[in-house]
Amino acid sequence: MLLKFSLYACALLVLVSALSVPVFLLHASMPFWQAAGISSIWGREWYPYEHLYGLLPAITGTLWSIFIALLIAIPCGICAAITASELLPRHLAEKARIGMEVLAGIPSIVYGLIGLWVLLPFLQAVFDMLTGHSLLAAGLMLSLMILPTIMLMSMDALQQVTREQREAGQSLGLDWSTQLTRVLMPQAWPGMRSGILLALGRALGETMAVMLVVGSLDRLPQPFYNILQPAQTLTSRIGREIGEAAFGSIHFSALMAAGLMLAMMGLTISLLGKR
Amino acid sequence: MNLNRSLPCTPMESGANKIVSAQPSLCLCNVSLQLDGHAILGEISLHMPQTGITALIGPSGAGKSTLLRCINRLHDGWQGSIELGGQSVRETDVDSLRRQIGLIAQKPAVFPCSIRDNVIFGLPNQQRKSVSDESIRQVLEQAALWREVETRLNDDADTLSVGQQQRLCLARALMLEPSFLLLDEPTSALDPRSRDMIEHSLQSIASQIPLLWVTHDLEQAKRISERVIFICDGRLIEQADASDFFSRPERMESREFLRWNVCDCD
Ligand SMILES: Nc1ncnc2c1ncn2[C@@H]1O[C@H](COP(=O)(O)OP(=O)(O)O)[C@@H](O)[C@H]1O
Ligand SMILES: [Mg+2]
Predict the structure, then answer these.
(1) pLDDT band at A225 (very low <50, low <70, confident <90, very high)
(2) What is the DSSP letter of B105?
(3) Phi/psi at B37 (nearest 5 deg)?
(4) Cα dihedral across residues B189, B195, B198, B202: positive or negative
(5) Any bridge partners for residue B33, and if so which?
(6) What span, in angstroms and rounded, lies between the C-alpha atoms of B68 and B211?
(7) How far from the centroid of its chain's Cα atoms is residue B242's Cα?
(8) Domain of A198: which CATH number?
(9) Does ligand 1 have an atom closer than 6 angstroms to the CB of B69?
(10) Residue A147 belongs to a domain
(11) Residue of B nearest to A167 (CA)
(12) Is B96 in Cβ contact with A173 (below 8 Å)?
């Protein structure tokens, strides 16, 4: 009786805290929505001193950087996982796994520093850019950071396919590539997808590393696919300015609104992942 | 003691010196296998007729499953020679070898797709698209499953009971028109009714192709088999016609096994 009661109590606690996040964000950003209006979501200018709080460049920057990160990390991570779990000998696969676990455990600021030191000069040299700060830099940075998650979860998913299933496929005389595409992948895919969603969540919320390489310039890419330009993301906007904004000011409230946008993007991702 | 070293690798009966058939369908000669440094199979030589059911019996851990897995090369590290239809399995491409040899495992492993897709799972891509409903019906009938799934071919295969799944695995193997079937205790996880259905359908299949059927159930072996191969502790003890084996086994180990279901072969 007591046990069941405490279980319900815990579940209720989780539910309340989950619901309180958007409610709290909505409440904190209310002054901003009232002052600047919903139209600032697609406003292009962000000058707090002139009361311009356009969120579009940061939203675009966030979407672009995630997109680049996934575009690189999903195929690389899944292919590496297939290689490690299906082709490499067991002991090498375990070494690869340990390596990835180490990479996954490195704090993001360290990635940011490495990005500053290696990635920016590299991009600067290759694309003849001013500094290397760009959406591409942020995307590459993020892809490196989420690669371990995708690879580890994909390896786990592949290794969950039972020996019986594998041997059933082999006994039918399926060759290796058919076995991969028709036996292994269909069964490992749900696990891989969870890995991708987890990684997506991390990429969405990543602040420090992105802040150091993205350039923090509020401009829409010109033309829209120009990822070599410095830009802004929602997280780096919040991280950079929350210290300067006076508590309770419109500026402060606008940053809360940026937080709300992030939370909603995260929610959308989870909902998409459910299907 | 090694009983098999003196056995000739020709289709000769070990005791009675009578010829089983002009050409054996399967012929093993001195097959040995070590896994992780342990000898699992020791110099097994045996042969099988062109059709009919051969029961492979022996206590659990004797190496029966391992022997089947050597034949379709899921284990590939064995020494000796295995010939199927006169050709060494080592010289055949491993994928086409496995298409020739159907293997039914102890635990049915259906794939997470529809019943229909499971039946045609082993076919190459083009054939999967062009396969006729009639041929799907035929193999399902052969596997004694048609009447139960007739109306629900597009349902998920894992909605079937274990017994039905096992028959689905059989249909899936038959779809490839194998020239040989290996069965690893195919009925040990099943209820008596499913067991009877599988036994019945396999007996009619056995009139066309040879079946090597692992079972630990001596009653079943008596019911179904024409020949018996008895192995214990990775070694062949006796191979004989079923009627001879069950009425007057030659070796002491066989007599013990028939009486007490234990084997002490060292
Ligand atoms: N992959 C393996 N590695 C090492 N030993 C194995 C392996 N597979 C089976 N064995 C051993 O081989 C012996 C025979 O196993 P198995 O062929 O499954 O017996 P049976 O099917 O007759 O019950 C057992 O002692 C088992 O422990
Ligand atoms: Mg076994």
Answers:
(1) confident
(2) -
(3) 80, -5
(4) positive
(5) B41
(6) 11
(7) 16
(8) 1.10.3720.10
(9) no
(10) yes
(11) B74
(12) yes
Q: Is residue A20 part of a domain?
A: no
Q: Which residues of A199-229 are buried (b: 16+ CB within 10 A; e: fewer)?
A: bbbbbbbbbbbbbbbbbbebbbbeeeeebbb
- The model's confidence at residue B22, banded by pLDDT at 50, 70 and 90, is low
Neighbours of B100 (CB within 10 A): 18
Domains of chain B are: 24-260 (3.40.50.300)
Best residue of A90, A171, A176, A182 to probe chain B, by most B CBs closer than 10 Å: A171
Q: What are the C-alpha distances in Å from B7 to residues A224, B43, B235?
A: 80, 10, 12
Q: From the CA atom positions of chain B, what is the Rg in Å?
A: 19
- What is the C-alpha separation between A85 and A158, in angstroms, rounded? 7
Q: Which ligand is nearest to the CA of B188?
A: 2
DSSP state of B63: S
The closest CB to that of A174, out of B110, B112, B122, belongs to B122
In the numeric block, the tokens 């089947």 are attached to B68
Question: Structure pTM?
Answer: 0.86
Residue B197 reports pLDDT greater than 90: no
Indicate the average pLDDT of chain B.
Answer: 86
Residue A78 lies in a domain: yes
List, in order, residues 6 or more apart from B243 with CB less than 8 Å away: none
Cα B194 to Cα B181: distance, rounded to the nearest angstrom:
19
Q: Is the pLDDT of residue A207 over 80?
A: yes
Is B109 near chain A, with CB under 8 Å? yes
Is residue B37 in contact with ligand 1, taking CB distance under 6 Å? no
Domain count within chain A: 1
Residue appearing with tokens 């600067």: A124
Q: Which domain holds residue A236?
A: 56-255
Question: Measured from the CA of B64, which atom of ligand 1 is nearest?
Answer: 22
Asked if B72 is an interface residue toward chain A (Cβ–Cβ < 8 A), one would say yes
